[in-house]
Amino acid sequence: MKSLNKYTKIVSLLLISGALFACTQTPPAQQTYSLQNLPAQFNSPASFALDANNNILFTSPNLHNQTLIEKGVLQNAQAPTIGLIDENDRVSVWYTFKPRDLEPTSGVVTPMGIAMGPDGNIYVVDMQLWFGGESRLLRVNVQNGKATTVDVVAKGFSFPNAIAWHGNDLFISDTVLATEKGSSTTSGVYKVSLEELDPKNPLQIAAYKGKDNFDAHLFEVFYSDGSLGFGANGLAVDGLGNLYTGIMEEGTVYKTTISKNGTKQSTTLFSEGLIASDGIQWSEDSQALYITDLFDNAAYSIDVNGKTTLLTKNKDSDGTNNELDGPGEAIVRGNTMYITNFDAVFDAPNMANTQADAPFTISTVSLK
Question: Tens of pLDDT along 208-237?
């Protein structure tokens, strides 16, 4: 894989200033959309989660605002949003991030990984690395299935990306802890408990400063080849409590076995062969992981033995005709796999996607 500065290309998609945020026009909350015709408020759908009613929630940090404005596709930037896909595949706005939710230093919120906690609230990571703010873990408080307010419950992460719960333990991937001149990437996974997540006293994670100087919540560390600058990315936990971590720049997945008391036992290579592994979700019904390859416009299942099966793949596309367009994550509900078309662009010859563009879509694959 071609060596990249970790801030190339995609940085130009991340210009969401306070002024642009203020220009946002929010569609009526009651309006619904189809998966293949999302409004601009979902211009970079990223990560999935199931809620208590089996609706699918997904984050959209809207990283393509500036690019789409420059192309004339948008007139105004769109505020980061959480969408909902109901049982009939109708899409609606579940929560639009408000000015009060912005990180105070950067004036930006960048919602990435999302998961429902054991308390019934929705947890979202806010990635701030590129903006000069402090990356955070947010709790979207839920009443009767509706989002009400947002609290900061932890902060101090570098590049938080995916999150996955197991019981009262929350795992958070941190994709960039350190880099060394493009030759290696250090990344990791944090583990925090529900009891530590108090909005009145947010958990403070100490910055990673090397192999001998890191926060006690750092559960596992990964060292990868530095070819892209992005390490630990997707996360999932299976029904037995095993943790799976995708290393994006190496296209691999590692399996971490965990004891009943929550301590780490071992971490081993579980699957390899992708170009750039991205989001991961576990399906208890099919006893398999589902994973996307952001660079190869592909989505796979991985069984409990590590066997990888291609489920869908296409060449460069704008996402029409249910094709993939820079797929970020896949989730299974019933007999259908849903895939976010994140539409990211990197300056790499082995990436299928060449531009961020309209339409804004979520693809589906029948698993019958």
Answer: 999 999 999 999 999 999 999 999 999 999
Q: Are strands 48-50 and 56-60 parallel, antiparallel or unpaired?
A: antiparallel
Cα–Cα distance, 323 to 250 (Å, whole number):
24
CB crowding 245-283: b at 16 or more within 10 Å, else e: bbbbbbbbbbbbebeeeeeeeebeebbeebbbbbbbbbb
Residue range 121-135: mean pLDDT, rounded: 96
What is the mean predicted confidence (pLDDT) over 162-167? 98
Q: Identify which of 199, 297, 189 has the alpha carbon closest to the alpha carbon of residue 253.
A: 189
Backbone torsion region of residue 121, taken as left when φ is above 0, otherwise alpha when ψ lies between -120 and 50, otherwise beta: beta
DSSP letter, residue 65? H
d(CA 2, CA 346): 10
Q: Is the pLDDT score of 159 beyond 90? A: yes
Distance from CA of residue 345 to its chain's centroid?
A: 16
CB atoms under 10 Å from CB of 3, counted, come to 14
Amino acid identity of residue 243, one-letter, is: L
CB 148 within 8 A of CB 155: no
Return the CA Rg of the chain: 19
- Please state whether the predicted TM-score (pTM) of the whole model is above 0.90: yes
Peptide bond into 61 cis (omega under 30): no
Can you read off the two tokens belonging to residue 196?
């530590």
In angstroms, the CA 264 to CA 188 distance is: 13
Structure letter (DSSP) for residue 276: S
Q: Which of 137, 184, 144 is nearest to 161 (CA)?
A: 137
The CA distance from 252 to 273, in Å, is 7
Taking a C-beta distance cutoff of 8 angstroms, is the pair 161, 174 a contact?
yes
Other beta carbons within 10 Å of 211: 10
Residue 250 predicted with pLDDT over 90: yes
15 within 8 A of 23, measured Cβ to Cβ: no
Through-space distance between the first and last CA atoms of the chain, rounded to whole angstroms: 35
